[in-house]
Design brief:
With 328 residues, the protein is α/β, with parallel strands linked by helices. The chain has helices spanning 12-23, 55-64, 79-84, 86-107, 140-159, 190-199, 226-241, 259-270, 294-300, 309-320, and strands at 3-7, 27-32, 46-49, 69-72, 111-117, 162-168, 170-172, 205-208, 220-221, 223-225, 247-251, 257-258, 276-279, 288-289. The protein has a domain at 3-172 and 224-251: NAD(P)-binding Rossmann-like Domain (Rossmann fold), CATH 3.40.50. It binds uridine-5'-diphosphate.
């Protein structure tokens, strides 16, 4: 049995990870400052409410527990906000992560799995994007993630820290059993916004731009089920345990759906009419982002269980229908 520290375990992907680790018999400690996470999303293990920017608190945590690995999900994720408030992103996503890594090195914890993003690539020069694609992030969010990836290389060199960076494309969906799902406040992601328009919690969904060089003019993205992301982390953990060297893997299905296609599919899955409002492009949105995840499939033996957009939407819809989620 492994003892795993899940940083950001009260958030969307982290909470699904905790559930998976507990179900496979791991001992789990969650660290979360609960600024964007929810206490009731932590389905088990020990929850320590603290900030990873707090070196003294981290020191105490590592003094009191022995961890085999750290999984880090705690970051700010809104691209637009990162442009308006870059300091907030560099302080949390970069500086606090560095504090965490230093505490890990002091405690001798040498395995780390990091939630990275397709945003490290910036405007793609080819699609599907593989890991060798140039990294030229175009906003502070993407830059903060890419900087951490580079710090991790240096920590491997200097201290032997073995890390796996998982570059998520568009995380979506919800726990198939319906216990967990996505709840961002404010919500900025396409799928939950569409489903809120379907359920009536929101009047309409806005389409940001219909003049892209794509078949229907709307942006194309690679949506990947949260359970499949979590499974990739479990496999990355095993990979490091078996002596795997530091690596970065793309996580996506390799198929792209346009904003308009997602809305159309959501209409079918929910059986509800969804009102659409057109708006100009959102700054910084590349027309098409699709993953080449061949390396994750090969090296980790990873194969998404829920690649169909219908399934991703159906699970997210079952979760939306449970709103309000509080006091569970
Ligand atoms: N999008 C949209 N309306 C919204 C939110 C998003 O048209 O209310 C589009 C956005 O421009 C992008 C795609 O949906 O092309 C996915 O956006 P999201 O914010 O979910 O994820 P991102 O691709 O930014 O990681």
């Amino acid at each position: 049995m492994n003892r795993i520290l899940v940083v950001g375990g009260a958030g969307y992907i982290g909470s699904h990870m905790v559930q998976h680790l507990l179900a496979s018999g791991h001992d789990v400690v969650v660290v979360d400052n609960l600024t964007t996470g929810y206490r009731d999303a932590v389905v088990g293990g020990e929850l320590v409410q603290m900030d990873i920017g707090d070196a003294a608190a981290l020191h105490n945590l590592f003094a009191g527990h022995r961890f085999d690995a750290v999984l880090h999900f705690a970051s700010f994720i809104q691209v637009g906000e990162s442009v308006a408030q870059p300091g907030k992103y560099y302080a949390n996503n970069l500086a606090a992560t560095l504090t965490l890594l230093q505490a890990m090195m002091q405690a001798g914890v040498k395995r780390f799995i990091f939630s990275s993003t397709a945003a490290v690539y910036g405007e793609p020069s080819y699609v599907p994007i593989d890991e060798a694609h140039t990294k030229r992030p175009i906003n502070p969010y993407g830059r903060s993630k890419w900087m951490v990836e580079q710090v991790l290389e240096d920590f491997d060199q200097a201290f032997g820290l073995k890390s796996v960076c998982l570059r998520y494309f568009n995380a979506a969906g919800a726990d198939p059993a319906g216990r967990l799902g996505e709840r961002h406040e404010p919500e900025t992601h396409l799928i939950p916004l569409i489903l809120q328009a379907a359920s009536g919690r929101r009047k309409a969904v806005t389409v940001f731009g219909r003049d892209y060089a794509t078949p229907d003019g709307t942006c194309v993205r690679d949506y990947i089920h949260v359970s499949d992301l979590v499974e990739a982390h479990a496999r990355a953990l095993k990979y490091l345990e078996q002596g795997g060297k530091s690596a970065a893997f793309n996580l996506g299905n390799g198929s792209g759906f346009s904003v308009q296609e997602v809305i159309g599919t959501a209409q079918r899955v929910t059986g509800r009419a969804i009102e659409v409002v057109d708006a100009p492009r959102r700054p910084g949105d590349p027309p098409r982002l699709v993953a080449d995840a061949t390396i994750a499939r090969k090296v980790l033996g990873w194969k998404p269980l829920y690649p169909e957009l219908e399934t991703i939407l159906a699970h997210a819809w079952a979760w939306e229908l449970q709103w309000p989620w509080g006091n569970r």
